[in-house]
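User: I'm writing a tutorial on reading structure tokens. Could you give me a worked example: one chain, its sequence, then its tokens, then a sentence or two explaining what the tokens reveal?
Assistant: Sure. Here is the example chain.
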Amino acid sequence: MIRANDDFDVEWEHPEDAERSWLRDATHSPGPEVPLAHSMMASFRGATGGGPSLLINGYAYSPAKAPRFPELSDEEYAGRSGSQAWFELCLPRAESLVETVRGRDYASMTAPELASLQPTVAEESAAISLETFRTIGRMSEEFEALRAFCVEHFGERAGLALELTRGAPNETTAAAEALDRLSGRARDLPEVASAIASGRFDDLEAADGGREFLAELDSVLERYGWR
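And here are its predicted structure tokens:
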């Protein structure tokens, strides 16, 4: 971790870093970070093409230059649209990597084993993230074509392109809907609702309908809890 004083008397581990412009990432890292957590995120950022990350006075800083994410090649697209390439190529690869990361028995590992696995997990997580960016360029072109069509044919209703695409199903919306159904289920079970409201989570299993509610909760967490 780099510590700066009032004179900004800094010793850079890599002298070329002194020539960069560094910005604090208040969106992804709004608060101070412990060195181990920052090490994980720095590995992830480096593997995704985001460049180095520094811990300065406990806060994470990254270069001002935005990362460039690799797009699929024309050969990989092979006539596919952006969404088709995502569902046929990128999503299956991402899901396979997710199963690898989630399939390990982390609970049985010792602390040194977990620590030694950290670089591997960072690389795997970065590979998963990169798959979600590989079709952005093509999808952006397709959206721009839709927007231009709306401008040409609807004029003042040019915002219709955004309205149309906001209704597209996605995992974020699905997760919110699953939580909404789960909360509705809890409201319909007075003993479950009471246990949750009072923080008596250990009493949920014995509550009327508690086991069924916990089973539904486990299902939601298994599907969306790793996000």
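What the tokens reveal: The chain has a mean pLDDT of 86. The longest strand covers residues 59-63.
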